[in-house]
Specification:
This protein is an alpha+beta fold. The chain has 14 helices and 27 strands.
Length: 594
């Protein structure tokens, strides 16, 4: 369809010009919406993207908003006394799996949501012991600013700051570092206060104060919210410091597996971004510098800046058009332009907080470690690009965690798959390629047992769950290469459901976590059908189209979309993979894959 391809190219050229204009203009936008909406018949919980993995609503009978620790304890007590299932939710709700949903497929039932949205006032800094204690609902940016104002810094933080203190440790949120305690925030936890169910004589709920000597702390550091309601988190801090960041863009990608270990050892906050279709690797040189080093820079990552709603909707419309016309070349044009623009603006780094003028960019830790400026804008014509209230970006996010020693083999396999047809990888390069980060071995039972490499990649998700995606088979094969051939573990707060299949067998201390769970919440008040599916790696029943959304791995054509030309096929590099591949009618074959 040459006419459609030409139209796509013209649309993309217009959009890219507008993106450049909007990125150098100060704009403001609508604030993220509350994840909980209630009417007289009950409440609905949504995540920040507006859709769970199965696209089914998460219902609850009611929600309560405690403002103090005693109110939090009372809320748990009420739930236990009345035999209610409970989930604690935050004002951000950026978790992708359905672990925050209190009910199962039967509906709302006897359920209660406890929101920490208003439990966010307490931040206590203990300078003598280099620690800060925060209420569960305190936002990451709020905490960072408070700590920095007193002359201290948090060492670890996720790249996205739209999270709360309790929420980020509960799902294993992380930055990137193999130095010191590492890049995972839960490994910087010194203590946790949690409200757990109790006997009638104890008032149906009680506080547990878990400190470093308590073995239960290693369960609570990363708990998926399954042990109780976290009330307070104590984190280690250091004296305030600065960082210097430089991105090196290289057009040679055949040495990643030989260089990632040394890169992570040389730079404290190193990461690597690989754009496979462009054969481009971006190395982040990121280290501490003396506090008197010149510079007041800012990390305002381009993907987290407020975007014009018009632009976000236009980008999505263009991407949908490329999908519907099966125009891989159009995606490659977009990927090339996007990558060039990121290089031009330093990926959102700003010298002296205003505009990018060259490397290195030096700034205080609090301004460099995380970002999310789209969270704070106020004009109605801009928003975060994925805000579900607009017709903006809608995507999957897969995140695989590899033992450092096994990561190189994964990269080699992905490169083999890329080399078969590089344009098949343009869809992921439109977003952020493959982002490689580093986290250390953890004592948390659900943390990583060894130093690890984390790989994140985002890719198109259809608005209609029955619509297959362009080159869908490629990303299903990459998923299965990661989680099944190379044994990667899924990030607990991200991923499609298939990433969790068999996850319980990948953690050596999984049974220790389950034992702690049974001790702290013996009645499973904080568990649900949905969270059990994730925790225990359960595979759901296979139905028509289930593989399109990552709810199953296909074994029959009906699990894909044969009526639209997508059939269950073998992988191209990983032959044991089963993927939904587009086949011309003359190429289709048996409806069942052995």
């Amino acid at each position: 369809m040459p006419g459609a391809h030409l139209l796509c190219s013209r649309i993309l050229g217009f959009i890219q010009a507008l993106l450049l204009l909007c990125s150098i203009t100060t704009v403001h936008g609508i604030l993220p919406h509350s994840p909980v909406e209630c009417i007289s018949s009950g409440c609905i919980l949504r995540n920040a993207y507006g859709a769970w993995g199965d696209r089914r609503d998460c219902s609850a009978l009611n929600v309560t908003y405690p403002t103090t620790e005693e109110q939090l304890r009372s809320a748990v007590s009420y739930a236990v006394r009345n035999n209610l299932k409970v989930k604690v939710v935050t004002r951000f709700s950026h978790t992708i799996p359905k672990i925050a949903c209190p009910q199962g497929s039967a509906g709302a039932g006897a359920t209660l949501l406890i929101s920490t949205e208003k439990y966010d006032s307490g931040i206590v800094i203990d300078a003598a012991n280099m620690a800060v204690t925060a209420d569960a609902g305190v936002g990451l940016r709020q905490l960072i600013d408070a700590v920095e104002s007193r002359g201290f810094s948090l060492v670890a933080a996720p790249y996205w700051e739209g999270v709360t203190v309790a929420g980020l440790i509960s799902t294993g949120a992380h930055g990137s570092s193999w130095w010191g305690k590492g890049g995972s925030v839960h490994d910087h936890v010194l203590g946790i206060t949690v409200v757990v169910p109790a006997s009638k004589s104890e008032g149906y709920a009680k506080l547990l104060m878990l400190e470093a000597h308590d073995p239960m702390l290693n369960a609570a550091r990363l708990s998926l919210g399954l042990l109780g309601a976290i009330s307070k988190v104590k984190l280690s801090i250091e004296h305030r410091f600065k960082r210097s960041i430089t991105y090196e863009f290289t057009e040679k990608d055949d040495l990643i597996e030989d260089e990632y270990v040394e890169h992570a050892k040389k730079y404290e906050f190193a990461d690597i971004t690989w754009y496979p279709s462009k054969h481009t690797v971006v190395y982040r040189y990121d280290s501490r510098v003396p506090l008197n080093a010149s510079g007041d820079g800012l990390n305002d990552f381009i993907g987290f800046q407020p975007n014009s709603i018009l632009i976000s909707e236009s980008v999505r419309a263009a991407e949908k058009l490329l999908e519907s016309t099966r125009n891989a070349n159009g995606k490659c044009l977009t990927a090339a332009t996007t990558l060039g623009f990121k290089k031009l603006v330093g990926n959102g780094l700003k010298n002296n907080g205003q505009i990018f003028s060259g490397y290195p960019v030096v700034g205080y830790q609090g301004k460099m470690q995380t970002s999310g400026s789209c969270l704070y804008s106020t004009r109605i014509d801009t928003s975060c690009a994925w805000d579900p209230r607009i017709k903006g970006l809608f995507f999957y996010e897969s995140t695989a965690i590899f033992p450092a020693s096994a990561f190189g083999d994964f990269i080699r396999d992905v490169r083999k798959l890329r080399d078969l047809k590089p344009e098949n990888f343009c869809g992921v390069d439109i977003y952020n390629g493959l982002l490689l980060r580093f986290i250390k071995a953890s004592s948390a039972y659900l943390g990583q047992p060894e130093d690890s490499v984390v790989v994140d990649f985002n890719y198109y998700r259809a608005n209609d769950p029955s619509n297959p995606r362009l080159n869908q088979d490629v990303w299903e094969e990459v998923e299965q290469l990661a989680f099944f051939k190379h044994g990667a573990k899924p990030h607990w707060g991200k991923n499609r459901n298939i990433a969790f299949f068999g996850v319980q067998h990948k953690y050596p201390k999984f049974n220790m976590f389950i034992a702690a769970k049974q001790k702290m919440d013996p009645q499973n008040v904080f568990s649900s059908e949905w969270s059990d599916d994730i925790l225990y790696g359960k595979e759901s029943e296979k139905v028509e189209g289930c593989a399109l959304e990552g709810l199953c791995i296909c074994s029959e054509d009906r699990h894909c979309s044969p009526q639209k030309g997508y059939h269950c096929s073998h992988g191209l590099v990983f032959k044991e993979a089963r993927v939904c591949r587009y086949l011309q009618p003359s190429m289709s074959f048996s409806s069942t894959i052995a």
